[in-house]
Amino acid sequence: MDTVEKIVEDFASDIAMSSFSGTRLRDMIRAIRACKTAAEERAVVRRECAAIRTSISENEPHLRHRNMAKLMFIHMLGYPTHFAQMECLKLIAAAGFPEKRVGYLGLMLLLDERQEVLMLVTNSLKQDLNHPNQFIVGLALCALGNICSAEMARDLSPEVERLMRSREVNTKKKAALCSIRIVRKVPDLAENFMALAASLLKEKHHGVLISAIQLCTELCKASKDALEYLRKNCIEGLVRILRDVSNSSYAPEYDVSGIADPFLHIRALKLMRILGQGDADCSEYMNDILAQVATKTESNKNAGNAILYECVQTIMGIEATSGLRVLAINILGRFLSNRDNNIRYVALNMLMRAITVDALAVQRHRTTILECVKDADASIRKRALELVFLLVNDTNVKPLSKELIDYLNIADPDFKGDLTAKICSIVEKFSQEKLWYLDQMFKVLSLAGSHVKDDVCHALIVVLSNASELQGYSVRSLYKALQAYGKQGSLVRVAVWCIGEYGEMLVNNVGMLDGEEPVTATESDAVDAVEVALNRRSADVTTGAMCLVALLKLSSRFPSASERVRQIVGRNKENVVLELQQRSIEFSSIMQKHQSIRSSLLERMPVLDEASYLVKRATATQATISADKLAPAVTPGGLKLSNGVAKPPSDPLVDLLDLSSDDAPASTIASTTTPNDFLQDLLGIGGVSSSTAGVPSTASTDILMDLLSIGSSPSQNGTPVVGHPGQESKPIPAAPEAIDLLGSLSSSTPVSEIKATSALPQAMDLLDGLSSSTSVSGLEKTAHPSITAFQSPTLKITFDFKRQPGNPRETTIHATFTNLTSSTFTDFIFQAAVPKFIQLRLDPASGNTVLANGNGSITQGLNVTNNQQGQKPLAMRIRMSYKANGEERLEQGQVSNFPSGL
């Protein structure tokens, strides 16, 4: 019996499901929600859609609105409902309000402006816009404001203009909102709504006022003529609206947390900012009402804070008086003391913009901003740190730096990187004396050395090299810091470098400053410090290599510790790291077999040119920024390089003196750069100029021969060269035989005999390979006719070519830039892009200022390797950016007239 009843119930259920079209919307929703799987839901929707199709084909008008309601729900679930688009039009054409309401709702949900069916609804919309029933007119305006296309806007804009003059408040409000859509779609129609928008600002109803202000804002964006018209006709109305709202009594209809209509406040303030920007007369007319809003609005509620924030934005955006700006910045200062993180964040954002307007007023809140740097919220910390960086000047740099460095000791590890970078930038930019600079950098290295970047260490070493009177103080300070903070990577590298260079100053307390406490350190202590750094497990390859170089130099500085140093270096002969193993073997050979030349070989590093380094660093930074802006995505073969971006590869000679990166092999391709090559960059030593074809390996050349600038004669298939980017390289002096200086040369052989044996034409310096004047190239150049690569009414670019017979794929291009105008070009940057089969390297330009009228030019070298030489010609796209009379300009073109054969 139970089975029979169950069968009857299932049959009745199937009948009910098969006749969905007669069910109500709530029944369909209940059935869909009762589905336990997606397959069941699809089955229910499929049966319902079939029932709706049947009802449409049988033309059942009384079920049309119910079917449309179901279709809208099905559409929101993500199922296709395109088969019922015409039902929307039928419902819209019906006479009753309920049918039209569902029809217009379906029109807005199921269709958009790209559907061709909308062409059929234009006439129905026009009829409904002229309907005597205001509710039907409201439906048509709402639909038009949501799906209006450009054609519909042109056809129906006269009706919307007429309805903006209606007596009905709701009709005027909806017509104003609909006109915003029309202006966005067809900006040419903006002039038709200017007078109407200005007249609506005289209304009393807040809904109409908000709609009118929104329309005025859109008109200002769409047309300059509308902006000027509204400046003349709307300022008085906006001031009156703000005054009425601010002084109005309590009205429950518009009250939000005790604030009278904050939405109208904010809309009016935004429009004021647009109208007053760049217009002194309008701004002067607004000053009083802005001051009133800023002083009378309560700041203990979110609605009031929103109005105050918008008021501050308006004050900063117009030509306000200085007193009003100070008032606005004081409001932001109060925001910084608020407990709400969002309010503090937006206040910091606004202060960063306000500092360009009135830096002195922002400086008054420096203490509060510094407290925000220590906030628990990471986003507030970062934004406050950026603001502090903008606040620093010559007068407050010392107290601000002290505060930041003190906080560095307790800062979160995730925040230390950003904080360290900003502190280093501040100290470098505003340091007035070298002693203060060194003290601050030593503190940063001690507290956050692992977060200090290599270029900062590079700059510090350059300063130390030039500050001869502070070298003793520096090595003692770094020695003491190394004892206390030996795990900070950058501190270890800088300290080891200083101990290796100035170890005797540490031991003998040379160059003591007034008030400095002497350091008790023996030669053994100095060696111990380097040995501990070398043996520390956390030390990377770069640090280990620098420790070995420092030990090698200490073996010359401290003869009594020479044997111990030799033992320490010898322990690394079997190091699993090939770089350290190689250095250990080479250094041990120098200490054992070449005593007579060791002192000359390991003498102190020459003073580095600080000025040229600063210029080079600034050029590289500017080029990097330009490359990021102009070429955010770089693909092989489409590489874009700015002035001086490319760095030459490292050289075995450079490896021997620890002047290259240890993260990459010594012989690298010309386009390869390494992140840790700051010491190589420190001496300005170029690497081996090599390409993918035609240049043999230099592994057979003795390392010490390279050190003494003794190389083999240039061969036809290419010779290793060492040189600076953008500088003519010189050939390696030829030797009659390859001399194994590390093997067959006895330790008693004087240097003079080596010179005589090598038959060099000039006196040889042991560190000749480090001099920029002895950069080597040694290859004959093959000339090609010059071409005019680019010429415009303002700029002319000429290319001169030189080729190397040993490597016919490689061409050196000498570019000359000439200014043809009467205005001097500044901040000149040249960029180039080549196809994938071409390799390109740009050398630093000779300058970034091109004088007017051709009175002087700047030059730049380009090295091009055509890997399909003979099959495909050279091709290049170029781009030049510069400033003329303070205006930024950009020119670009394509060079395709290269000489044949390149």
Automatic annotation (TrEMBL):
<dbReference type="InterPro" id="IPR008152">
    <property type="entry name" value="Clathrin_a/b/g-adaptin_app_Ig"/>
</dbReference>
<dbReference type="Pfam" id="PF02883">
    <property type="entry name" value="Alpha_adaptinC2"/>
</dbReference>
<dbReference type="GO" id="GO:0006886">
    <property type="term" value="P:intracellular protein transport"/>
</dbReference>
<protein>
    <recommendedName>
        <fullName>AP-1 complex subunit gamma</fullName>
    </recommendedName>
</protein>
<comment type="similarity">
    <text>Belongs to the adaptor complexes large subunit family.</text>
</comment>
<dbReference type="GO" id="GO:0030665">
    <property type="term" value="C:clathrin-coated vesicle membrane"/>
</dbReference>
<keyword id="KW-0653">Protein transport</keyword>
<dbReference type="Pfam" id="PF01602">
    <property type="entry name" value="Adaptin_N"/>
</dbReference>
<dbReference type="InterPro" id="IPR008153">
    <property type="entry name" value="GAE_dom"/>
</dbReference>
<dbReference type="InterPro" id="IPR050840">
    <property type="entry name" value="Adaptor_Complx_Large_Subunit"/>
</dbReference>
<feature type="domain" description="GAE">
    <location>
        <begin position="782"/>
        <end position="899"/>
    </location>
</feature>
<dbReference type="GO" id="GO:0005794">
    <property type="term" value="C:Golgi apparatus"/>
</dbReference>
<dbReference type="InterPro" id="IPR017107">
    <property type="entry name" value="AP1_complex_gsu"/>
</dbReference>
<dbReference type="InterPro" id="IPR016024">
    <property type="entry name" value="ARM-type_fold"/>
</dbReference>
<keyword id="KW-0968">Cytoplasmic vesicle</keyword>
<keyword id="KW-0813">Transport</keyword>
<dbReference type="InterPro" id="IPR011989">
    <property type="entry name" value="ARM-like"/>
</dbReference>
<keyword id="KW-0333">Golgi apparatus</keyword>
<dbReference type="InterPro" id="IPR013041">
    <property type="entry name" value="Clathrin_app_Ig-like_sf"/>
</dbReference>
<dbReference type="InterPro" id="IPR002553">
    <property type="entry name" value="Clathrin/coatomer_adapt-like_N"/>
</dbReference>
<comment type="function">
    <text>Subunit of clathrin-associated adaptor protein complex 1 that plays a role in protein sorting at the trans-Golgi network and early endosomes (TGN/EE). The AP complexes mediate both the recruitment of clathrin to membranes and the recognition of sorting signals within the cytosolic tails of transmembrane cargo molecules.</text>
</comment>
<keyword id="KW-0472">Membrane</keyword>
